[in-house]
Amino acid sequence: MRLALAVGLLVAVWLLDSLQRPAPLPMAQAEFPRGAQGVQAAQLKHQGGGKIPMPADAQAAHASNLLAMPAGHTAAVTAFWFAGDRESAPNVQIAASQFDRDTQRWLPARYVVERQAMAAQLGFGLRRLGNPVAWLDAGGRMHLFVVATGWGGWAAGRILHLVQRGADNRLDQLTLEPVGVLPLSWLWNTSFLVRNAPLPLKDGGMVLPVHFELGIKYPVALRFDREGTFMGMERMSQRNYMLQAALLPQTVTQWTAVMRDQRPNGHITAVQTADGGAHWQDLPDLALTNPDAAIAGLALAPGNSVLAHNSSPHSRALLDLSTSADGLHWAHLADLAHGWDSDEYSYPALTWADGALWVSYTDHRRSIAWQRFLPATGGAP
Amino acid sequence: MSMELPMLSALLNTATPALPDAWLVRMYLSLGWAVVLAAMGLGLLARLSFKARCALVGVLFVWALVPGPLSPTYWLGLAFQAPSLASVLLGGWLVWRGLFSRAGAAKPKVPAPVWWWLMLPAVLLGYALLLDTLALLPWQLVSWGFSGALLLALMAWTLMPWLLGGHQDVAEVPLWIAPGALLLFAATRLPSGNLWDALMDPLLWLLLQGVLLGHLRRGYRNRLAYRT
Mind listing the pLDDT tens digit for each residue in B135-150? Predict the structure, then answer.
């Protein structure tokens, strides 16, 4: 009798579980930016830049992220960053601005994620906000992933997934609501952070690089389907000092991920996958030095990638743009910002929109600077 | 054969997680902590009169349901997210026992099969999950929490003490808590969509270690007393 009941319970559990599971996704295949094929990174020339407007009361800004908007939208690019009195200040919120296609100017910035409001919707407290990363799903809905800390500093961070409410994502209409905290760790979901842009996939989904950073640092790739539903995770390295991966596809299924190195006198580190992120192998360090600083990478086309990175081994005063055919060997393309030792130009972000490469970065933790690079042969924005 | 392989493949797949709905998570967060807090309150003040115990449970329950920073849920969620389903079921049973059972304030007993089939494996599992979080294991244990195969395997495992002819005495911790948590997880995906979070949270893991250490210490003392 007991055995029959136990078997019945097992069948019930199996049925309940199977009915709720989504269908498995096919192997991830990278999507390269539209309009970037045929553009040689070496031909990109600086064509404008400046500062993105800040919210009126913000004294500090950091960790920007750029999102290319679809054709037909009023904006070419949306920029997100965190702003407030200082990094980790209680009043830090997520700010955003859009580059208006008509006026060719950035719109006045506004806050789009407020800590207390998100906490009220979630039902539990959020101590600090940071590192926004945006993505458009197959339906054009905007998703935003931000670090929201529990008790402790950044190492107590969790990744909060937000999604656009309503149909309009023009800056003045943009409203975001929480989907939830991504379930990445048994230890109260603690210490997973997001920083770099996702890799769009041909199926309309994406792969989001995140990292663990409580004591040790290791990268993890998260898969999302075309509607932005979480579909699993894969650890990217066996090493424990690598974080903030930038995903650079060489082909649709063969990708390199380059990363910030936490070690002193470190170099940019790398891993690769040949099966769309299902399995990863560690690679030798790259020749590029890395002063424990964030990097940003973007593959424009197969064999054609760009990387924004701090090139000095001991400071964040030099921010450069480099280009590579294989994601491993890089050549200097342009100086993005060069200062003295105490200067800081850091946390770059890249995107491709309206036939141009867009770069943003933190300028002395006080503002977000931006630059645009166009192919030398033309290509109107 | 052609049917069996896809079914096995689907069961082993860790890339088809089903997550709970946001509204359900929000509701569970408050209700879960309300039950756990009520159980803790009763545990601390078990010798109160029946009316006082009812009032205590009511106050703690309502307090946990209050929205915003005045609620303990707001701060417990900030630090610990949501309690596991097993913690909530255990808390619910303790509240029921503390209010309505004749066993009353007596310490719950742990039947023998539970030690070997549930408590000890759970404590060891917690260490494995901790090591996995720190990437000190060669495999990704946390990902297995998204697979259907693990759910079935754990369901079968947690039913074993009952199948092997468990008790039930009302003074004993019931055998249905772990399988009940798994059944609820299969139905609701709470609290996070990952099976490990449903089965055991780190606070429950710490509690189990305390109970296990207490049991071992008592056993050691009893042996010493027997020898002398």
Answer: 999 889 999 999 999 9
Read off the pLDDT of residues A284-312 as tens digits, 9 standing for 90 and up. 999 999 999 999 999 999 999 999 999 99
Residue B14 falls within a domain, yes or no? no
Binding-face residues of A in 139-198 toward B, CB within 8 A: 150-151, 178-181, 183-189
Long-range contacts of B56-64 (CB under 8 A, 24+ apart): B57/B95, B57/B98, B57/B99, B60/B34, B61/B34, B61/B35, B61/B37, B63/B37, B64/B30, B64/B33, B64/B34, B64/B37, B64/B38
Interface test with B, best of A5, A11, A13 (most B CBs within 10 A): A13
Q: Is residue B9 part of a domain?
A: no
- Position B161 in a domain: yes
Listed residue (A297, A349, A309, A306) closest to A325, CA to CA: A306
pTM of the entire predicted model:
0.95
Please tell me which residue of chain B has the smallest CA distance to A148: B78
Number of domains in chain B: 1
Whether B12 is covered by a domain: the verdict is no
**Structural domain of B136:** 20-227
